[in-house]
Design brief:
Radius of gyration: 41 Å
Shape: elongated
Structural class: mainly alpha
Largest sheet: 4 strands, antiparallel
Number of strands: 4
Low-confidence stretches: 1-43, 313-317
Strand content: under 5%
CATH topology of the largest domain: Rhopdopsin 7-helix transmembrane proteins
Distance between the termini: 124 Å
Number of domains: 3
Helix content: 55-70%
CATH class of the largest domain: Mainly Alpha
Order of helices and strands: HHHHHHHHHHHHHHHHHHHEEEEHHHH
Length: about 600
């Protein structure tokens, strides 16, 4: 029975049937694959030896595929596009997996490794099916020959459908768990669907490990495969949307870094499957190179985003290499796409113009765009790899935004140091304030290496403290970071001085509260030990006057006179206490005059 078969699945395996395995149906245009994604930072140490072994195995298998291609030198056809995609996966993700696995041990790292190995095996398999028919004395290796159809699936779909949910530094939420489960089910199901394909049965024995040799099943395969492809697109876009959501909502720069690029790469890789979900009639109008080219384009974003998002602060010694590689790739692809688009546009708008003139105009426009495009690309790549250190103003804004209001000096300086370490991606930093009443030397991160750099903090040429910064292990402070530090020093110096003033203000408030407390105790003492007994004595005297006023009026008058003098003395005591608490001269003439009056009063009293 006739059936459609994608180029991705069998374009190279037709050689098996052409050399003794029976006739093979002519394949239709169709299927492809895609990779990309990774997980959170930190975690367990990596496995350097295992990483090297897997890298060597991946590159050896990839080299074998290249050797087979050179030995056969087949004409370029649609299957070769997917060979190029598989080879790119092996080379790119082999290197990325080696870097990741040598430094961290995370599930997403193993997905990258599986992607690289699967791409290498699929590339070698596709070339083996073209090499073996020319050497019939060699074994057919049916299972290996079929690997081009399914070896790429676990790693590639794992990157698209599973890894994006794992790229986080916080525990998985319910949505993430559901996404991982859905991605895993689709990935395993797609592999099983490929394994049950009985191709090239009934013309020859099937080569798949779980082949179902049934005409009914053959009739269902295309519909089942399109269903899986639709599921891949839905789950893949959901994963990219979740990464975008976290990128927009997270506050910490180190948690957000790389997620934006990861979302773009994941979305591009998912969209490479969209043409495969279209009806065959619609796919006939698309060039065969569209899907593999889209997949290769996604490689401009995804690997670097994986490295930054997964390794975070463990990207030691690789930032410059990653930055240059990504910038070069993006710039080359942008200029090439711009050149092709310009030539095509000129041909459409000015059909009478000769092709040579159009190419010259396009080359001139591309040459003029090189420098602005390079700056635009470099800024964004540097922001991805280096954080805010590339843009001093961004680093200043990141640190300066933490000075919201005067707080506890230690909290203020600690917050600023955290901002410096995060924005400049340092191993640690410390501030030592030299003024009296400072909160001491505060440290964030790790210091103590020979590469530590101490910088003075000056305000109006007055030394207020020192900033010590330490680069990450295996790195040194480059010129970019030094320029950012130079821009930050005035802000940090003012912040250090502010911290000192806040400390002094806190001490002044403490002294004021102590003085007020002493004043309250003095007033209480006067009231309890002075005015209280005096008023009680006056009350007793008035009772005595009442008893004497009938029997001895003269004695009563004399006692009243003495009580009047006592009241006058207590009134004067009240005035003295009031003057001692808040002297009128202090309110009217100021502190100097009040001190002079106090000194004169003590001098006249003989003190």
């Amino acid at each position: 029975m006739p059936r459609t078969v994608s180029h991705r699945r069998w374009s190279s395996m037709t050689h098996l049937a052409e050399h003794g395995r029976g006739p093979v149906p002519v394949p239709d245009d169709g299927d492809t694959h895609t990779p990309d994604t990774v997980e959170g930072d930190g975690g367990a140490d990596g496995h350097p030896f295992v990483a090297v072994v897997l890298l060597v195995v991946t590159y050896v298998v990839a080299a074998v595929s290249i050797g087979l291609y050179l030995a056969v030198q087949p004409p370029w056809h649609v299957g070769q596009w997917y060979f190029l995609v598989d080879l790119a996966d092996a080379v790119v993700y082999g290197a990325v997996g080696w870097v990741l696995l040598s430094r961290v041990d995370r599930p997403v790292v193993w997905i990258v490794v599986v992607t690289a190995l699967g791409g290498a095996v699929a590339a070698a398999s596709s070339q083996w099916t073209q090499f073996q028919p020319n050497h019939p004395d060699l074994p057919t290796l049916d299972l290996f020959a079929s690997a081009q159809s399914w070896a790429w699936i676990p790693g590639t779909l794992g990157l698209i459908l599973v890894a994006p949910w794992l790229v986080r530094r916080r525990p998985l939420d319910l949505i993430g768990k559901v996404g991982i489960a859905a991605g895993s089910v689709v990935t395993v199901g797609f592999v099983l669907e490929r394994w049950t394909d009985p191709y090239p049965w009934p013309d020859a024995p099937s080569v798949m490990p779980l082949a179902i040799e049934s005409e009914w099943w053959v009739d269902q395969l295309d519909r089942i495969e399109r269903t899986f492809i639709v599921a891949i697109v839905i789950v893949g876009l959901a994963a990219a949307a979740d990464v975008t959501r976290r990128w927009r909502r997270l506050d910490r720069l180190d948690e957000r870094r790389g997620l934006g690029w990861l979302a773009v790469g994941g979305a591009l890789m998912t969209l490479t499957f969209v043409p495969l979900a279209l009806p065959t009639s619609a796919m006939d109008h698309l060039p065969v190179w569209v899907t593999p080219t889209m997949h290769l384009t996604s490689q401009l974003f995804f690997p670097a985003a994986l490295l930054v998002a997964v390794l975070g602060q463990r990207l030691w010694g690789l930032r410059i290499a990653v930055s240059r590689a990504v910038a070069w790739s993006l710039l080359t692809a942008s200029l090439l796409a711009g050149y092709v688009a310009t030539v095509a546009t000129i041909g459409l708008l000015l059909p009478d113009l000769t092709a040579g003139v159009g190419r010259v105009v396009a080359a001139a426009l591309v040459a003029a765009a090189v420098e602005p495009v390079r700056r635009w690309v470099q800024r964004r790549v540097d922001r991805l790899v280096h954080g805010d250190a590339r843009e001093p103003l961004s680093a200043v804004a990141s640190v300066g935004g933490r000075i919201a209001s005067p707080r506890d000096p230690e909290l203020l300086l600690s917050s600023l140091l955290e901002g410096v370490v995060e924005s400049l991606r340092l191993a640690g930093a410390a501030i030592d304030v030299t003024a009296d009443g400072h909160p001491g030397t505060l440290t964030v991160g790790r210091l103590g290496d020979a590469d530590d750099v101490a910088l003075p903090l000056l305000v109006d040429d007055e030394l207020v403290g020192a900033l010590t910064v330490s680069p990450r292990p295996g790195e040194r402070l480059d010129q970019r970071t030094r320029r950012a530090l130079d821009s930050l020093l005035p802000t940090l110096a003012v912040a250090a001085l502010l911290a000192v003033k806040v400390g002094e203000l806190a001490e002044s408030r403490a002294r004021l509260l102590t003085a007020r407390d002493e004043e309250r105790r003095a007033v209480r003492r006067e009231l309890h030990d002075g005015f209280g007994p005096a008023l009680a004595g006056i009350g007793y005297g008035l009772s005595a006057v009442r008893n004497l006023i009938g029997a001895d009026p003269a004695k009563a008058v004399e006692l009243l006179d003495r009580l009047g003098h006592e009241i006058d003395a207590r009134v004067e005591d009240v005035r003295t206490l009031a003057r001692d608490l808040v002297p009128p001269v202090l309110l009217e003439l100021g502190l100097v005059a009040a001190l002079e009056e106090l000194a004169e009063r003590h001098r006249t009293s003989g003190v």
